Structures are given as structure tokens and as C-alpha cells.
Amino acid sequence: MNKFNFDYSEYSDILHIHKDGYVTKGSAEVGDFTLDFDSNEEIVGIEIENASEFFNNLDIDKVSLNEMKGAEFVIDKRNPQCNLIFLKLQLQNSIKKIPIPMPVVA
């Protein structure tokens, strides 16, 4: 299983999750999301701008994001034409698994 580094800036309201030990070779922006890719074109990092607004309907606010204990993402590649991204956030008292409503075309 991959290890992940994460950082949340309350000031800029940006959440960044990155696979530990992987180097970003390129990025793509889609709205408030930036996807980082390695040299094999695999997603190795995700950045979410306006993170508290994105998570607001899940009752995750800036305080919860600031106190997060862990964060990771999973890429579902079962559909060869479209990858789906899921986030797993370990909050102070719970774990939330969140699908990102943005298919990534392979």
C-alpha cells in the first residue's frame, strides 16, 4: 500500500495529497483540482483549491481539515476509458471516503 503525505493550508484553503517517494513530472488543472503525474503518466498527487467549500456538504470544515490525521487517494482503473478518483480522509473522530465527481480520461 502506498504511503501519502498531505498538507492543508487554512489560509489559502488548499489540500494537497501526494504519494510518498514519487516525483511529479507534469500536472493538469481541472477547475479547482490539480492532478500531478509521474513519468509513467500515473497520478501521484492531488491538490484541491477551495477545499472547505468542496467538502462543505460532508460537514468537513477548515477546522476538521486542519486537524486531519491522514489523507490518501485511490484510483479506480476498472474502466479502461475512464479512471475514477476516491479520497480517504482520516479526521479527528471519523474516516470519510469521498468520490471526486470528475472522471479522468485515461
Give an account of the 3D structure.
By secondary structure, the protein is mostly beta strands. The chain has one domain. It has 2 helices and 9 strands; from the N terminus they run E-E-E-E-E-H-H-E-E-E-E. The protein has helices spanning 51-55, 62-66; strands at residues 4-9, 14-19, 26-30, 33-37, 43-49, 70-76, 82-90, 95-99, 104-105. A 5-stranded antiparallel sheet has the order 1-2-5-4-3. Strands 6, 7, 8 and 9 form a 4-stranded antiparallel sheet that branches. Strand 1 and strand 2 form a beta hairpin. The protein is globular. The model has no long low-confidence stretch (mean pLDDT 89).
Biggest pleated-sheet summary? 5 strands, antiparallel
Total discrete domains? 1
**What is the typical, i.e. mean, pLDDT?**
89
Oligomeric grouping of the chains: single chain
Q: What helical percentage do the residues reach?
A: under 10%
Provide the succession of SSEs: EEEEEHHEEEE
Regions with little confidence, pLDDT below 50 for 5+ residues: none
Strand segment tally? 9
Distance between the termini: 22 Å
Radius of gyration: 13 Å
Strands side by side in the biggest sheet: 1-2-5-4-3
Number of helices: 2
**Main structural class:** mainly beta
**Beta-strand proportion:** over 45%
> Outline, from the CA principal axes?
globular
